[in-house]
């Protein structure tokens, strides 16, 4: 057998075998089940099972990269180097190292007319004036290069916007490649006033325009029993893979499954906003950061395994000449393959990386496999400051403005990562029974939306009729 780690090719096993050894056991004779186009979903659920005595998924927690167990750190060397490089995009302290588009600056300098784009750009330039020594303005060519290098760049991407955020009447390619559509989302984070409602809008809302993804405020996991989590889980927001493009977000809940797993999950932390600006019920607030991290991991686990399954099938189909030619072998999980979690509260952002890794068996071990384990590690804590009492261009509040600016860049990097993870999942050829089940659920949801719209229209019409009758009665 071959392994999923390139560094240990002599004792390699396939990623599918690693998934089995990690707790999703698959009968050897049933390995074809997940590849057969015509088997019913019930058989797939039967084939997936958890053997608690022989194979348990191992989760390692760390509240800082520096405190990770040395053995785990060695196994995650490439992933942790990716995280370190990623953080440079928002943590760099050298002059002129935090980048935003030059077109934002030029838009602010226009004087021929006043538009929303001009007003947003002018407001942003006014706010960031005290921190200009940290900022560099990148050219349009660099903006395009970052966006087009799918697996080469995880720098802030200023062109991540769904078609719905572009005027479809505009045929100019330059309009589609205009970073102005992402500017309002940056501005909302940088000018965050300090209340919970604004945080709920600005932080989850940053991911709304991500192509290939849909943001939901509440998501149910819909996975086979070995992956299903029971008991109460706190409310989260999730960025789901959406192969059909942005879907109707009017439904209060969505389902994450193998075809549409969550790419990023966010949850509120334990630090409360002051009573006068808080919206959360005190009973719903976690008691500690440790509890929050555990709750987040419970949400992440089935989705991360679903992402691994998608990666396996995409690469397997690529090897058989079906998928994207640029994908590397599924026997080597790329360093950037992980799932990010986001904790936000009154103190700011906490970014958590959930990393799959394998440690080769020791020389004395009887097992030839390298069981898949998972690392949940806090990679950064970013304060976000309320600026309600701060005047734009205020030199005395430079650190607060800079903190919010770094947070906006960090969110852009996480958005870029979710976009890349979504892009590699497009075209995965799942068994038709699973795809059909998912399609029927989408249709049912659309019918529910239509029924709700009709009910609302009928209710509005009835209310209007009653109001008209009442008005007639008053004038009779």
UniProtKB/TrEMBL annotation:
Acidic residues composition-biased segments: 437-454
The protein, known as: Uncharacterized protein
Domain of life of the source: Eukaryota
Lineage: Eukaryota, Fungi, Dikarya, Basidiomycota, Agaricomycotina
UniProt-annotated stretches for the region Disordered: 435-476
Biased composition (Low complexity): 455-468
Annotated source species: Heterobasidion irregulare (strain TC 32-1)
